[in-house]
Fold this protein.
Amino acid sequence: MSNHPPVSRELFDEVMVPNYSPSAVIPVRGEGSRVWDQQGKEYIDFAGGIAVNCLGHCHPALVGALKEQGEKLWHLSNVMTNEPALRLAKKLVDNTFAEKVYFANSGAESNEAALKLARRWALEVHGEHKTQIIAFKQGFHGRTFFTVTVGGQAAYSDGFGPKPGDVVHAEYNNLESVKALISEKTCAIVMEPLQGEGGIISPTDEFVKGVRELCDQHNALLVFDEVQTGIGRTGDLYAYMGLGVTPDILTTAKALGGGFPIGAMLTTTEIAKHLKIGTHGSTYGGNPLACAVAEAAFDTVKDSAVLAGVSQKAAIYNEGLNAINDKYHVFKEIRGKGLLIGGVLSDDYQGKAKDFLIAAMEEGVMTLVAGASVVRFAPSLVIPDEDIQEGLARFERAVAKVVNA
Ligand code: PLP
């Protein structure tokens, strides 16, 4: 039995750097799509740790893999390879367009590797002029300095002094804005195949196919950031598979480890060869413990019943949210794909997504926001249908509270 001294939310303000403002609730236990806090209050989890807990909390397959590997071997360093990393890499390669894998520990790090690789590739294949990176306004790629610079939100990238250079931003779903920027100097276009943090915005068919064509015309790489959309979230193993557009580099993290930190960058042999020995690395990237858990998550999600369940569960959400909306008229649109769902607040509630999140928490359901005016849902891919119904009933009470406030 552990014998820790009691802690409370107040301690956060005392001992933690103030970059977060966490809820007053401290969860202590989770099982499936239910979570309990210090006081024993139960919550239904529609947030999934921001699209991370693809199999809910403490899924037996993940707990089993963690325990098994935890008693075998945790860490070695990249001076040696290890069995779980090799097995997971093989599965990623066998199930995607990719031929090579680089392991990291987070989404930002996976993107950092992708950006550095794209720059290396362009330099070595085409020359020093080819450094421009085109990304998108409202895009989000992580919090390292390169990735916030590539992300399209000044609130995250400004205020830290000079940024990495030659990064420009076009408008998502506006092919003309990409055409206006792209040239032989473009090294890569970086995009989310569904903008998550930016407000749950799907690309149009014409846009995503047009971006691929522009990359091909200008010898630029297409980088898909699938950190949020990957591992079954949209109903396909990776979102690119449902779009009919294949990137040159893909990044994946979040749900890859089902809650254990891991990320990966996937690409072709031809591109990968430019990250030669010593050009990039990470102490923890590809460590056996993370890879063993990720392998179990991957095997479980890849099951066709899990992937098929995503659209069936998404239909329950859409029906339930529309029914709530018919009564309360809080959303002007319910959008997204699979179990990445955004309720766009109507004009009367603009900027108030957080109010819904707080009220939902009070009613016992965890939700997310995507910007100030979109309420986001990213539950476990295997959330039981009864939990969806019960969570929606609680969410309806939260909506009523906000509307009647
Ligand atoms: N890329 C996308 C599309 C994301 O949604 C996120 C996180 O929200 C990241 C990258 C950053 O991932 P991490 O926080 O693991 O660095």
